[in-house]
Amino acid sequence: MSDLALGRLKTGSMNQTEAAYEADLAFMKSAGDVAWYRFEGLKLRLADSTFYTPDFAVMRSDGVMECHEVKGFWRDDARAKIKIAAEMYPFRFLSVKKRRKKDGGGWDVEVFE
Q1: pLDDT at residue 91 above 50?
Q2: I want to staple 18 with a disulfide (CB 3.0 to 4.6 A). Which of 14, 36, 44, 74 is the partner?
Q3: When comparing pLDDT for 76 and 88, which is higher?
Q4: Residue-wise over 7-43: b if at least 16 C-beta within 10 A, else e?
Q5: Rounded distance, CA 13 to CA 25, Å?
């Protein structure tokens, strides 16, 4: 079964939630809080033939590198990969989930350390 059959987009294509988050990153960059970001800008090796590609690689204005994962919901393997990556690499890992408008909008953030 192909990835497209599972409802996933082709590598390098953003879904609506990722595009909304990119708009927020662009705003944070224009405000000076983010120095740089790139969609699917890193591919991290976790083991032989096992990789993790965060949705966004982000460099904050203070030089701290972060990996941002944009989620509507979690699959077990994705949560395991971000936890393993957080143990292996010196980046700050976090996930963001869009909050419903009736709950105030914005993003819920979970940090993996």
Answers
A1: yes
A2: 14
A3: 88
A4: eeeeeeebeebbeebbeebeebbeeeebeebebeebe
A5: 17
Considering the domain boundaries, does residue 6 fall inside one?
yes
**Is the pLDDT confidence value at 69 over 70?**
yes
Inside any domain, residue 85: no
The total number of structural domains in the chain stands at 1
Range of the domain at 26: 1-72
Tokens of 64: 């701290």
Closest CA to 82 of 113, 60, 107, 57: 113
Q: Which of 89, 10, 5 is nearest to 52 (CA)?
A: 89
* CB-count exposure of residue 73 (10 Å: 0-12, 13-18, 19+): exposed
* Mean pLDDT (whole number) for 63-88: 94
Whole-structure pTM value: 0.86
